[in-house]
Design goal:
3 strands; globular; alpha+beta
Length: about 50
């Protein structure tokens, strides 16, 4: 199983990031290349295969 976070941004685009164990939220945002103020919605998704 793989855990992903799907970010829907205010401009309507989406970013999908595979979660890494022990990584902070700020580090995750840096890896995604977005800022917290750009996020409209975020969702945790669990998949059996990779995106």
């Amino acid at each position: 199983m793989y855990n992903y976070r799907v970010y829907t941004l205010r401009d309507g685009s989406k970013r999908i990031i595979k979660l890494k164990e022990g990584e902070s939220f700020k580090e995750e945002l840096q890896r995604a290349g977005i800022q917290e103020t750009q996020i409209f919605q975020m969702q945790l998704v669990e998949k059996t295969e990779q995106f």
